[in-house]
Design goal:
Number of domains: 2
CATH class of the largest domain: Alpha Beta
Structural class: alpha/beta
Shape: rod-shaped
Strand content: 5-15%
Largest sheet: 6 strands, mixed
CATH architecture of the largest domain: 3-Layer(aba) Sandwich
Strand order of the largest sheet: 1-6-5-3-4-2
CATH topology of the largest domain: Glutaredoxin
Order of helices and strands: HEEHEHEEEH
Radius of gyration: 33 Å
Length: 215
């Protein structure tokens, strides 16, 4: 009888151990599944956040391109000459925003020129979709430095002094121009976003390197 009783107790203990083991396995599976679900949710949520952020950025850029630049002046692009000439050209605005020009463009791959550059070559760069940032002695040294740093980081842009321009700082594209008083004016970034290789460009994608380098 004692032997049978001991055997039954042993079987009972073994069964209890098996139930405990199965319970531990179930808990482990639940923890693993839950952790996996949380990881997936985090990845999906993070991906959605990044997509939304990128979407918001693109929407903001589109809005900047669509919005008019306050104080901007425009000329009829179709009426601006586009002939390559060797003779001198008198432009009706300073700096010029288009017209007949030299067959060689100014390098405009974020180039900053410390001295004046030829209008005829600069206009050719505008035809390629560049934005030309100009300044005179009314602009502060800090503004000139800040603009230079911005231009150096912007392909299809160039910068040079133009002493006889009316405004302290001016930005020009083909048929477009705006005057600002400081480098931190929001219209600087807006103009660059809108007109670097913008819709006004007569020859989009044309080179901004391999031209004239006045440095």
């Amino acid at each position: 009888m004692a032997s049978k009783s001991q055997s039954a107790e042993r079987k009972a203990r073994i069964e209890e151990m098996r139930r405990a083991e199965r319970a531990r396995e179930r808990r482990s599976r639940i923890i693993t599944i839950t952790a996996s679900a949380l990881v997936v949710a985090a990845l999906v949520g993070g991906g959605a956040f990044l997509l939304n952020k990128e979407s918001d950025k693109k929407a903001a850029e589109k809005a900047a391109v669509a919005a008019p630049v306050t104080g901007e002046k425009s000329w009829d692009a179709e009426k601006l000459g586009r002939n390559h000439v060797t003779k001198a050209v008198t432009y009706p605005m300073t700096p010029p925003v288009g017209g007949d020009h030299d067959q060689v463009w100014m390098n405009c791959d974020g180039d900053v020129y410390d001295k004046a550059i030829p209008d005829k070559n600069a206009v050719h760069s505008l035809e390629h979709g560049a934005v030309w940032v100009t300044y005179n002695d009314k602009a502060s040294d800090d503004d000139v430095k800040a603009l230079a740093e911005k231009v150096k980081k912007t392909k299809y842009s160039m910068m040079s002094p133009v002493q006889d321009q009316k405004g302290a700082i001016m930005l020009s594209a083909w048929g477009k121009q705006v005057t600002v008083d400081s480098a931190d004016d929001s219209r600087v970034d807006q103009f660059l976003t809108k007109y670097v290789q913008g819709a006004q460009t007569p020859e989009p994608g044309a080179a901004c390197t391999g031209g004239l380098d006045a440095a």
